[in-house]
Design goal:
The chain has about 170 residues and is mostly helical. It contains ten helices and no strands. It folds into two domains: about 1-50; about 70-170, no CATH class. The protein has helices spanning about 5-20, 25-35, 40-45, 55-65, 75-80, 85-95, 100-110, 120-125, 135-150, 155-165.
């Protein structure tokens, strides 16, 4: 079980770091703490990196994704908050799981528009986009190619949502 007090304490300490230090130093301090945390807390603790909106977080994700057996949307949320690109998404799709799941969630967050239902208020405000502005057909074709390798329901649903998002299809 999770120790809620431990989680709250971590978030309070990391919030103070993000307020006190410049982005680069805050990232260094937070990731140093994350290296020491138990794997079961990683998905919860890494949320503090969202507020940095810092591209090196993507490298951190690459190095740490395998620490979790269950990749939740919080990983994609973090990637989308960290200046995610289609180029990086393609790299992660090619790496396979767990990175491909993170890439799909990040692209989903970066292509959602409108009400952003079921997304955090912070993500609605941030309104992330793929920072390299890829052509929509490039994304769609890349995702269709990926489906040939991984067509489980989670992947199919994510790809469907992304394609609906990029071509403005309303559900």
């Amino acid at each position: 079980m999770y120790d809620r007090e431990k989680m709250n304490d971590f978030h309070i300490r990391m919030e103070k770091i993000t307020e006190k230090f410049e982005k680069e130093k805050a990232f260094e301090l937070i990731t140093s703490e994350l290296e020491k945390c138990e794997d079961k807390y990683l998905s919860e603790f890494m949320a503090t990196l969202n507020f940095l909106k810092y591209e090196p977080t993507l490298d951190w994700i690459e190095k740490n994704a395998e620490r979790n057996e269950n990749i939740t949307e919080s990983w994609g949320h973090l990637a989308a908050s960290s200046n995610f690109t289609w180029e990086r998404a393609q790299k992660w799709l090619n790496l396979g799981r767990p990175w491909s799941l993170i890439a799909l969630d990040a692209v989903k967050f970066c292509t959602t528009s409108g009400e952003r239902l079921n997304q955090s208020p912070w993500m609605r405000e941030l309104n992330p986009r793929l920072t390299d502005n890829p052509k929509l057909d490039k994304i769609a074709n890349g995702l269709q190619d990926y489906l040939k390798k991984d067509s489980v329901p989670r992947t199919k649903v994510a790809v469907g949502l992304i394609i609906d998002n990029i071509f403005g299809v309303e559900n």
